[in-house]
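#struct-help
A.M.: can someone run this one for me? Single chain, 207 residues.
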Amino acid sequence: PSEARKRKRGNNVGYSIFLRKRIFILALLRFLPTCYYGITSLFPILIKQQTGDNNAVAWFATVYLISASLAQLVAGRASDRYGVRMPTRISFGAILVAIAGTILTVPSIWGMYIFGTLGISAAWALSTLLPGLVMTAAEPEIHGRVFGGLHMTWTIAMMLGTLLGGALLDIDIRLPFVIVGVLNVIAFMLTVPFFRSAKREAAVAEV
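D.P.: on it. Structure tokens below:
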């Protein structure tokens, strides 16, 4: 027990908290879907290329903003009622459906409207669930550092996703979505050890 306490104290120094398994997994759960969200910046470009109509781009932004806002309300309500695990997995599942739909339908305008809106809404829902995920992964005294590190992770992933999408767009319009699809399959799988370790720790605390 004393050795365990020493290791825990060592992992409480600065941002070394991200070396903890569960917090590291949480960082990946933030990073991987945000890579997809960065690539969604391609949708306005693709819609403009396909239609040549600025109104089509403006309507896409309007539709996804309304949908994503509603998704946040639903995610928040679901988190309060059922806990964070179920809505987190549903959000990741929706992102995967959106990616698959985009790959199958691009460059269809309606495909980009439907699946782009779905994916962005799911990504916003995940952001709503972030406080609950942090509470699951970390004790209150390190929440500030965890949030700070996760926001930096979001920024890096957003930049990488945007740059990846721009670099690969001329090679194959589907390629960036295939890559982030693989990344988000990994993220969905990581929810299993993340929530399993939380459940195990809660059981130990009750003993």
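A.M.: thanks! The chain has eight helices and no strands.
D.P.: also worth noting: Residues 28-200 form a domain with the Growth Hormone; Chain: A; fold (CATH 1.20.1250.20).
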